[in-house]
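Researcher: I need the complex structure. Ligand is EPU. Inputs:
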Amino acid sequence: MRIEENFSLLSYNTFHIEAQTRYFAEYDNETELASILADKRFSELPKFHIGGGSNLLFTKDYEGVILHSNMKDISLIHEDDQYIYLYAQSGLIWDDFVAYCAEHSYYGAENLSLIPGEVGSSAIQNIGAYGIEAKDIIYQVHCIALEDGKKYTFDQIDCAYGYRQSKFKTDWKNKYIVTGVTFRLNKQESYTLSYGNLQELLKDEEINLNSVRRAIIEVRESKLPDTNKLGNAGSYFMNPFVEKSRFDALKSTYPNIPSYFVDEFTVKVPAGWLIEQCGWKGKSLGNAAIHDKQALVIINKGNATAKEIIELAITVARDVKNKFDIDIHPEVIYI
Ligand code: EPU
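Model: Output:
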């Protein structure tokens, strides 16, 4: 267990923003977590649990307790001919989990290769990429309630997963700490290659878990800046949902507008495309900039403050609204 007071969060957020927290508490097992939750020093203070800090923006110092899990084990729960059920602890680096699945020939996680963050947040955020979301492989989510320290297990269906959405972000917000996730992976060979140019990228290769994982990693590395070199939090905005009739009207003005099918009445439009059309790709405002290879990403050019990043986000969203009459909203969480 590690408890720090007046602690810098600089290396705990991928935007590389300097912010202090009154307390930082990192635990190595559930008993330590229970003792932190029962600690009188912390009982009156607000608490916020972080994962890899790859989807948040500290806007000021935090006058409470920042919690972090250092539990990183993977264990076998059950297997049958078709599936394997693996329990992964919350603090495990997400991509270490994906790599483990690929090494052991368990199918289903490979399209989520190289997404930054940790296992616990994957179940809160329902991370997604290349046609797959975490919900597709989540079987159960294991939690401890912040209020009374009791343990709960939720089935996937209870978590009300949607695009970058779950009950942990709505009704259950700040109620539970995710301690582990049971994933259900396929033991039979199966791939999801329908997204974008994935098939094209793999056309000269034998399709297997390693080649698919490598292709996904290559695409991500070509578009998304390395957080170790350039502060960012991946996609800054969520892709907006647009009514089909409205989309059809936009399509007649912008024939090249890309879209993803949601249902017969709704399409999802890539916010990166909208932002690029507004001329923002590669442009800066103060020390914050829109990434030159993927306009959905805001980067910290060096010494950006949270204020500068938010100012850029507001300006870009306003321009998108003025040009397309579409609202785009941050995926990044402001603390
Ligand atoms: N596009 C542009 N200009 C841009 C960016 C994108 O025209 O600057 C167009 C592309 O040409 C393409 C479409 O928009 O036609 C989609 O682009 P891309 O495949 O890069 O995906 P995205 O919709 O921008 C989403 C996720 C990413 C995920 C990719 C791949 C969200 C908010 N983002 O981005 O997730 O990696 O799909 O599945 O849904 C993340 O959450 O941090 C993240 C990186």
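Model: Summary of the prediction. The first strand starts at residue 2 and ends at 8.
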